[in-house]
Design a protein that fits this description.
This protein has 165 residues and is mostly beta strands. Helix content is 8%, strand content 44%. It contains one helix and eight strands; from the N terminus they run H-E-E-E-E-E-E-E-E. The longest helix is centred in the N-terminal third of the chain and has 13 residues. One of its GO terms (biological process) is translation.
Length: 165
């Protein structure tokens, strides 16, 4: 761990390029790298579980840039949910001078702390669940039935025209 910390802090000077991606998480775009921890809006997932984000907009792999239109098909970012928490309190203060109007509100945003486990350019194809096939039975020959092809004659009634007197 110490080696990676040194590499992380000295990276601008050593010119080491690490793979990163721009991914959309909960409606926001984040630039993420492997083993990075970020705070995103609350995800409806249990703590300790893994999450796959498939809206990957860009991947940079050691200078080789892959840009999606709008997303890269087959790419995904896997992350682990570490914690659900609330952010710092944000104070909202409104005032109109010389009017005696002051309103003070505040709120705390619900957040999820996640750690990026891996970035994949081409995710493995999902295998379809195997379907159990029923043993085929031999088709029984149907008795040939002849349908009468005689056409029925249709009769129409002719209405006699009434004579006006």
């Amino acid at each position: 761990v110490l080696f990676y910390q040194i590499v992380y802090f000295c990276r601008p000077f050593l010119r080491i390029k690490i793979m990163y991606a721009i991914v959309e998480i909960a409606g926001q775009q984040f630039k993420v790298e492997k083993d990075q921890q970020i705070f995103a809006h609350r995800l409806e997932v249990k703590e300790g579980s893994k999450v796959d984000f498939e809206k990957v907009l860009l991947i940079d792999n050691s200078g080789k840039v892959n840009v999606g239109a709008p997303v890269i098909k087959g790419a995904k970012v896997t992350a682990k949910v570490l914690d659900h928490l609330k952010g710092d309190k944000v104070i909202v203060f409104k005032k109109k001078r010389r009017k005696g109007y002051q309103v003070k509100n505040g709120h705390r945003q619900y957040l999820t702390k996640i750690e990026i486990l891996k970035i994949e350019e081409k995710a493995a194809a999902k295998k379809a669940p195997a379907k159990k096939s029923k043993p085929k039975t031999k088709a029984k020959p149907k008795a040939a039935s002849k349908k009468s092809s005689a056409k029925k004659k249709t009769t129409t009634k002719k209405v006699a025209a009434k004579k006006a007197e």
